[in-house]
Design goal:
Blueprint (H helix, E strand, L loop, with lengths): L1 H17 L8 E5 L14 E8 L3 E10 L2 E10 L5 E5 L3 E10 L2 E9 L6 E10 L5 E8 L5 E7 L1
Length: 154
């Protein structure tokens, strides 16, 4: 009996080691244009993202200043894979579906296209550096080159 309990304990401990532990994006992050790629005019933008994370969601408040205009946006990512409606800065209301892919959060944004009856699909991938001090937000539409925004933790 004692041997069976010992084996059970060892199995449970090893199972805990293999269980996926997702990174914690919580905190305040500053956009670093000089480390980013393909950001175009956004390189002139000041942006801070404040992130609150739970087991089932990621809530991002972005404060931006661009050409003297201040704006605040809020985005809710449902990490369980359920659809959520969010406003995309250039596309208006979008259906978003988020899920964990290893240590990354991958979100598919679907919004109405510029041509009636079409949709635009954008894939966004959020990840952390191994030391947790940098966050990368990569966004790509179709076969276009990705926009890669780098943030540093404040």
């Amino acid at each position: 009996m004692r041997k069976a309990v010992s084996i059970l304990v060892i199995c449970l401990v090893n199972l805990g080691v293999f269980a996926a532990k997702h990174p914690d994006f919580s905190g305040t992050w500053s956009f670093v244009p000089e480390k980013s790629k393909n950001v175009g005019m956004m390189s002139e933008m000041k942006m801070t993202q404040t992130i609150e994370q739970s087991a089932s969601s990621l809530d991002v408040t972005a404060d931006t200043t661009f050409q003297g205009n201040n704006q605040q946006t809020k985005t809710h990512y449902d990490l369980t894979g359920k659809p959520a409606v969010n406003d995309s800065p250039m596309a208006g209301p979008s259906d978003t579906v988020s899920k964990w892919d290893g240590e990354k959060v991958v979100t598919t944004w679907t919004s109405k296209g510029a041509v009636a009856g079409t949709n635009t699909v954008r894939t966004e991938t959020r990840s952390l550096s191994p030391d947790g001090t940098s966050m990368v937000l990569e966004s790509v539409r179709g076969s276009n080159s990705p926009v890669v925004m780098v943030f540093e933790k404040k």
